[in-house]
Amino acid sequence: MNTSLSLSPVILSRSNTSTCSPEPQHMSLAVILCLVYVLGLLLNGFSLWVFTCRIHKWNSGVLLLFNLALSDAIITPLTPLMAAYFAMGNWIFGKFACQLKIAVLSVHFNGSILFLTLISIHRYVTVVHFNRSSLMKRKSFVKKLCAGIWCFLIMNSIIYGWLLPVTTEDNHRQCLTIHQTKLTNAYFTINFVLFVFWCILPLSVSVFCYGRLASSVSRINIHSIKGQTVKAKSMRMIGICLVIFGLCFLPLNVVRTIGVVVKKYYPEKCRLMLRLQTAYYVCYILAGINCCLDPLIYFFGSHNFIKAFRRSLRTITMRRNVEKKSDSESLTQSVNGNVIYTVSQSI
């Protein structure tokens, strides 16, 4: 639901009163948005294939990674609708499509943040407290936990879809935008709930877990090849996770929070809203890059995923070599056949 407070473009309109009216965004933003999410779909689609078809024995860590990939991939089918909405500034897809958009966005962003946080907790428990028993190490518990999280995410998304209906502003139908004047108070309240519980709290937990993990990994014996490999991969994973939180989610929440404050207390400052709009869409695209960065976590965070990935590459390479060899043999047989036929005709 982190994208739920979309800041549609605005212009300064003055005719005895000061109002901010929706205006279409530049087409390049919609194109970049589609490219980012299509790339994310390809990467996460391949990751889901590796998880489901190439990894036969799952542990608790793989379960969390699979659910993260699933939450990243579900947003892609709605990306063309969002891109069209950004370009037109007018929602033309109906009430149900708007509610579906709200629900999917809520599940996508909240799910990504929640599973990233759980992955950080899981890594902290398995590495820092490797010799202690923990529920996060039990596959059966993590499976139930993930099922409960999906139920919570779905119910949460339905509530948001009901609270934030389509409205008409200046002859433009608006869906999930800050220009819905009737919903200003609702957006203001929801934003701060999201900012505290879906940004600050998960970020704090992740920073704590990865801080302790980095401290623990720094003490690994790097004189052995295995120690060097483990330390390098662990540090890369820590860096990627913190970059995802710091680059993808934090700016989006900060800019959106400023936007709802300006909308509530300074609605006449349209030029400021226009600048915030530009900043927000940049942050929106950065948030989408999360889908492209998460597959790196699968690679650095799961030994089973790495082995399955390498097996897949070997299988693909072998198939291509067999096909090339078969094509080469067919070509040779064809050439030899033509030569024999030509010689026999000459005789």
Automatic annotation (TrEMBL):
UniProt topology in membrane: Multi-pass membrane protein
Sequence intervals crossing the membrane: 27-51, 63-88, 100-125, 145-166, 186-213, 234-259, 279-301
Pfam families to which the protein is assigned, alphabetical: 7tm_1
UniProt key word Nuclease: no
GO MF, one annotated term: G protein-coupled receptor activity
Keyword Amino-acid biosynthesis listed: no
Superkingdom of origin: Eukaryota
Residues in G-protein coupled receptors family 1 profile domain copies: 43-298
UniProt xrefs under InterPro entries: GPCR_Rhodpsn, GPCR_Rhodpsn_7TM
Signal peptide span: none
One of the record's GO cellular component terms: plasma membrane
Compartments, as annotated in UniProt: Cell membrane
Keywords assigned by UniProt, alphabetized: Cell membrane, G-protein coupled receptor, Membrane, Receptor, Transducer, Transmembrane, Transmembrane helix
UniProt xrefs under PANTHER family: P2Y PURINOCEPTOR 4-LIKE, PURINOCEPTOR-RELATED G-PROTEIN COUPLED RECEPTOR
Similarity comment: Belongs to the G-protein coupled receptor 1 family.
Protein name: Lysophosphatidic acid receptor 6
Organism from which the protein derives: Triplophysa tibetana
